[in-house]
Amino acid sequence: MNKLIAKLYDQAIILEGNGDYVAGELDPVKFAELLIKECIERGNDLAKHYINNHSEQEQVFLLAAIADYSNELKKHFGVEE
Question: Which domain does 71 fall in, by range?
Fold first, then answer.
């Protein structure tokens, strides 16, 4: 498994225990939210890197488009900040 996916998986584990043992169960909703947030963040990073090769006027337009796209993804998947 990809290290990043494994890290996100670990972050989505709900730990339960009674003092004698601890068991974990994956929260699929949390895992999906973490994946979507990671995809948005990576997409933003790549787009910002790409923007550097454009004029200042084009950069403003592209940054606005990136923000709109990120917001639409969050809304589409119901992911909160």
Answer: 3-77
Model pLDDT for residues 30-51, shown as the tens digit of each residue: 999 999 989 888 888 887 777 8
Helix H or strand E segment including 29: helix 28-51
- What is the number of alpha carbons within 13 Å of residue 64 lying toward its C-beta? 6
The pair phi, psi for residue 27, each rounded to 5°, is: -95, 100
Whole-angstrom CA distances from 41 to 10, 28, 30 are 19, 20, 16
Angle at 27 between CA 7 and CA 22, to 5 degrees: 80
Q: Calculate what percentage of the chain has a pLDDT beyond 90.
A: 14
